[in-house]
Design goal:
Blueprint: E1 10-14, H1 21-25, E2 31-35, H2 45-50, E3 61-64, H3 73-79, E4 87-90, H4 96-106, E5 112-116, H5 119-123, H6 125-129, E6 134-139, H7 141-148, H8 154-171, E7 177-178, H9 187-200, E8 204-205, H10 213-220, H11 224-234, E9 241-243, E10 246-248, H12 250-263
Parallel strand pairs: 1-2, 2-3, 3-4, 4-5, 5-6, 7-8
Antiparallel strand pairs: 9-10
């Protein structure tokens, strides 16, 4: 079963639109994010919170709450107690103490996905990733660009994405989820963005429209040729050997096991990262 650590194509749906909950679940996504934050107008916050449900599907449900210090934050946290959640997404994760406070308030009810969407958040990403209860970092790339005053371009965001990948690796948590592709009329852009994020070490991407899901899933799923190669390499024993005319040793086998784990996230083929 997909868990918070293996989600690839989470789809946002406004929490004040319960008529869309089942549609979102049937879209092909592997997780639904009920959004209490950016997708909900200020005068709809309380109404949206009252509409939260987690019983409309068998997929992992994530709730993006309003950030620490906002007027709705405490009530959002209190409302989560009655829900069966895969994770809670915390926006504007900047201060480690504030993130730790949310984890402590949840008391293990659900892990936290820390949404890094500012320069300050990125500067503290390594510390945030180590907080007990944080299961994954998520890149809020659009807000990050607004904070820094830079353009939302792949090449300009490589350092930020790589830092989130490194922070996750050092903390021995699952690799991060990439931010959204804002263009909705060209699904190939979602595929290209996801392919770029995968190449940097990310293993998922936020989706804001159902038509993005298939392309993101295609980007993160290994090709059949990659899977076949990985099976041959993983079965090559130990030591240095030749497979398909190339030298194979343990680092290459580790890569093969990683590919097999991507091909079927429910099978823990690749070892969980450690800090060794």
């Amino acid at each position: 079963m997909v868990s918070a650590e293996t989600i690839r194509t989470p789809l946002f749906v406004p929490a004040n639109r319960p008529d869309r909950f089942e549609k979102a679940a049937a879209s092909g996504t592997d997780a639904v994010i009920l959004d209490l934050e950016d997708a909900v107008a200020l005068d709809q916050k309380d109404k949206a919170r009252a509409m939260l449900r987690s019983d409309f599907c068998d997929l992992p449900i994530v709730v993006r709450i309003n950030g620490s210090g906002t007027p709705w934050h405490e009530a959002d946290l209190a409302a989560l107690r009655t829900l069966n959640l895969a994770a809670v997404m915390l926006p504007k994760s900047e201060h480690p103490d504030a993130v730790a406070a949310v984890c402590q308030t949840l008391e293990g009810h659900a892990p936290v996905m820390a949404l890094i969407e500012s320069g300050l958040g990125l500067a503290h990403a390594r510390e945030i990733a180590t907080i007990p209860g944080v299961c994954r970092l998520v890149f809020g790339s659009v807000d990050y660009c607004a904070d820094l005053g830079c353009e939302h371009l792949r090449e300009g965001l490589v350092p930020a994405r790589c830092e989130l990948v490194l922070a996750s690796r050092l903390a021995a948590i699952a690799p991060p989820i990439d931010g959204v592709t804002v263009r909705l009329d060209d699904p190939t852009e979602s595929f290209e963005d996801a392919t770029h994020a995968k190449a940097l070490g990310m293993t998922g991407k936020l989706c804001i429209h159902p038509r993005q899901i298939a392309e993101v899933r295609r980007a993160f799923h290994p090709s059949q040729a990659e899977i076949d190669w990985a099976h041959r390499v993983a079965a090559s024993g130990d030591g240095a050997v030749s497979v398909d005319g190339a030298m194979i040793d343990e680092p290459v086998r580790k890569r093969a096991r990683h590919i097999l784990a991507q091909a079927d996230p429910t099978q823990n083929t690749a070892p969980r990262p450690t800090n060794e």
